[in-house]
Amino acid sequence: MRLVKVRSHEEMSEFAARHILDKVKSNSKVSLGLATGGTPVRTYELLIEDYRKNHTSYEHVFTYNLDEYAGIAADHPNSYRYFMFEHLFNHINIPNENVHIPRGTASDIKKEAKRYEKLIDSIGGVDLQILGIGENGHIGFNEPGTPFDTRTHIVELTESTRQANSRYFDEYSEVPKHAITMGIATILKSKEILLLASGEQKADAIYRMFEGAVSNDCPASVLRTHQNVIVIADEKAVSKLEKVRIG
Ligand code: F6R
């Protein structure tokens, strides 16, 4: 696992956007695993800025999102589908049919999880997976305790995750209790993984990911078993790590 320390959220986003653009330019049919949340928003903005300026084409790019809330309609402003179109897809030339996001309102949600897993299997895992990290070390919606061999599945969200995500909802009670997410084994199938972290609220999770045991108490620690992971973290996110290493 390679750690790239950067000074700020902006530098983290610039590094990530450059990395994604390199992939898109060297392989026009690249498959990208994408995340929602606050962390990658600026990265997506930079991709849009590049698209407007340099016309980098996404015509043949395929995307696979990590997760989606269960029970929220695709066109609901809090759905992850809505988020992705708002923050990226509406502003670049990716065809709608190349975009894949789990369907949170599928009538049989377990069947939907199986369909999504099969889809990712059919491409042999994504070429590049972008990840954020939860304050409790979750990746995707794989909360602490999730077995490492889990495939795309339905999860019950923890209080800490619901609290963290409530900033996007009018009321805490509106935050869904369940989601559909790529499993840890699904994420590990990715050929390359780029994990982004910024802010001191992530410092604990980053510390545990690098220095703690590889254990499902901290799902992100499993990334130490993958051959091709880059972590881009700003000064605040690595603050606990540095204390340990310097001291
Ligand atoms: C989002 C996702 C989550 C987030 C994580 C960090 O698709 O799967 O694991 O990456 O919760 O969220 P932010 O970036 O809002 O701190």
Please describe what this structure looks like:
- There is one protein chain.
- The protein is an alpha/beta fold and 247 residues long.
- Helix content is 34%, strand content 17%.
- Strands 1-10-9-6-2-3-5 form a 7-stranded parallel β-sheet, with helices on one face. A 3-stranded antiparallel β-sheet has the order 4-8-7, with helices on one face.
- Helix 2 links the parallel strand 2 and strand 3.
- Helix 1 crosses helix 2.
- The longest helix is centred in the first third of the chain and has 18 residues.
- It is globular.
- The chain starts with a strand and ends with a helix.
- The mean pLDDT is 95.
- Bound molecules: fructose -6-phosphate.
- The site of fructose -6-phosphate has 14 residues, from loops.
Please give the radius of gyration in angstroms: 17 Å
Largest sheet: 7 strands, parallel
Mean pLDDT: 95
Number of domains: 1
- N/C terminus separation: 22 Å
Which series of helices and strands comes N to C? Answer: EHEHEEHEHEEHEHEHEH
Percent of sequence in beta strands:
15-25%
Instruction: Examine the secondary-structure arrangement and name the CATH architecture.
Output: 3-Layer(aba) Sandwich
CATH topology: Rossmann fold
Low-confidence stretches: none
Give the strand order of the largest sheet, numbering strands 1, 2, ... along the chain.
1-10-9-6-2-3-5
Total of DSSP H or I helical runs spanning 4+ residues? 8
Structural class by sheet pairing and helices:
alpha/beta
Helicity level, as a percent range? 25-40%
- What is the name of the CATH class? Alpha Beta
Shape: globular
